[in-house]
Specification:
The chain is of the alpha/beta class. It is built from five helices and six strands, in the order E-E-E-H-H-E-E-E-H-H-H. A hairpin with a 4-residue loop joins strand 5 and strand 6. Helix 3 crosses helix 5. The longest helix is centred in the first third of the chain and has 23 residues. The radius of gyration is 22 Å and the shape is elongated.
Length: 189
């Protein structure tokens, strides 16, 4: 891999801005907002600092989670305790790279949960929703009214479903099936 190229930077000076400096990404460039009373040296120092801050934030957001199976299992147990009364106890929770049409899947028969690696770059509240969804299958295998009642205990459920639907649409991926009925014991999403 080669060295990372420097981003395009646009500095905007403002007479109304007195002390604060801020920066944000706008397409392919970074906009840095500074007071107009800064010297050239102060401006350069602030631009360097703020560009680095924006790039660090973007890098953290793009980095996949390094959670191993044990960390996923611990997270699943905390979520089960918090939202499902501790009733959903999986035997395994792990990342998988072969789920192209689903965010996660659960096999109630062997109490295993598999999570798409695509979730590693998503906000934690979205990952938590998928885990709660899969945990709920350990209580209610089918996508019926009882199942959705369990999932609704997670406060960000509707928001997360919308996020995942929007992500799927933006990526031009089919949305995972969510209302299908599965025979008890078979893998479900």
């Amino acid at each position: 891999m080669g060295a990372r190229s420097k981003p395009r930077v646009e500095v905007r000076r403002s007479g109304r801005r007195r002390r604060t400096v801020s920066a944000y990404r706008d397409g392919t460039k970074i906009i840095v907002l500074v007071p107009d009373n800064l010297t050239g040296e102060e401006e350069r120092a602030w631009v360097t600092k703020m560009v680095a801050r924006v790039e660090r934030k973007e890098s953290r957001a793009a980095a996949p989670r390094k959670w191993d199976d044990a960390a996923l299992m611990e997270r699943a147990q905390r979520l089960s305790d918090a939202y499902l009364g501790g009733l959903a106890v999986p035997d395994s929770v792990r990342w998988v790279g072969n789920q192209r049409a689903r965010w996660g899947s659960c096999t109630p028969r062997d109490r295993s949960i598999r999570l798409s690696e695509r979730l590693q770059r998503m906000p934690e509240w979205v990952l938590d929703y998928v885990i709660v969804h899969e945990l709920a299958h350990l209580i209610e295998p089918q996508h019926d009214e009882k199942f959705w009642g369990w999932v609704a205990h997670y406060p960000a459920a509707e928001k997360a479903k919308g996020y995942l639907a929007g992500w799927s649409d933006a990526a031009r991926m089919p949305r995972p099936p969510s209302e299908e009925v599965y025979p008890a014991g078979d893998a479900v999403d």
